[in-house]
Specification:
By secondary structure, the chain is an alpha/beta fold. It is 44% helix and 21% strand.
């Protein structure tokens, strides 16, 4: 009787082991794992107008601190990338070409590491024009090597519309139609209530949401809600 029981146990273990090592099981496990993967791209406006103050603080500094908190709250398996637009040149005609042409990647796609992430903005501040379309083009880098099921969410944080002649609505649509089916969320900082302009169209084209933030508290609430979604 004992010999029969031991034989049955051995057969059961062997069957389970073969199932786990089978390609079908491996594929299912991989798909499940991939389904949870998250890529986040932060596009932060560093144009000249971000020097203006909200709640006694420069809009750029306010947004920067809220982005830091948001990044810290991301799921452990998330990878994040951050770029600045408008940080180069100046907001006069003499600096327009350079400002519109350069998107400053400050944190490449990688897991969040607090010190490195926060240090990535050292030495940068609001300076130039607002090349939103080119910034969104840079977000396409995050679509590379995405596998099925990966979430890629872009957060565009700005206090103005495109000033460099690009078409951010078109690029947002292209991003969503790309391999990663990227979602483009837009946070309009310090816009008047009832704003119906270009930024809403960008979010709509990117199948995301347009959020309006007039204070640090409002921006913090937006990022808290978004963080909860990413943990679902």
């Amino acid at each position: 009787m004992l010999k029969k029981v031991l034989t049955l146990v051995a057969l059961t273990v062997l069957t389970v082991s073969m199932s786990i090592s089978s390609p079908v099981f491996a594929e299912a496990s991989t798909a499940k794992k991939h389904k949870k993967d998250v890529r986040v791209t932060i596009l932060l406006d560093a144009s000249g107008s971000m020097v203006r103050k909200v709640d006694g603080e420069r809009k750029f500094d306010l947004a920067k601190q809220e982005v830091f908190k948001f990044a810290q709250s991301l799921p452990k398996n998330a990878k994040i990338r951050m770029s600045l637009f408008g940080s180069e040149g100046n907001n006069k005609n003499s600096g327009k070409a350079h400002s519109c042409d350069v998107i400053r990647g400050v944190y490449d796609i990688q897991p969040y590491e607090k010190q490195r992430f926060e240090n990535s903005l050292n030495g940068f501040g609001p300076n130039g024009w607002t090349p939103i379309a080119r910034a969104l083009e840079s977000a396409k880098q995050s679509d590379k090597q995405l596998h099925k099921g990966t979430k890629h969410i872009v957060y565009l944080i700005t206090d103005g519309e495109e000033t460099c002649g690009g078409d951010p609505v078109k690029v947002a649509k292209e991003l969503h139609q790309s391999k990663g089916h990227t979602v483009v969320n837009v946070i309009g900082l310090d816009f008047n209530e009832g704003y119906e302009g270009q930024l809403k169209q960008v979010a709509k084209a990117g199948k995301g949401h347009y959020y309006q933030a007039s204070t640090r508290k409002e921006m913090g609430s937006i990022f808290t809600a978004e963080s909860l979604k990413l943990h679902e």
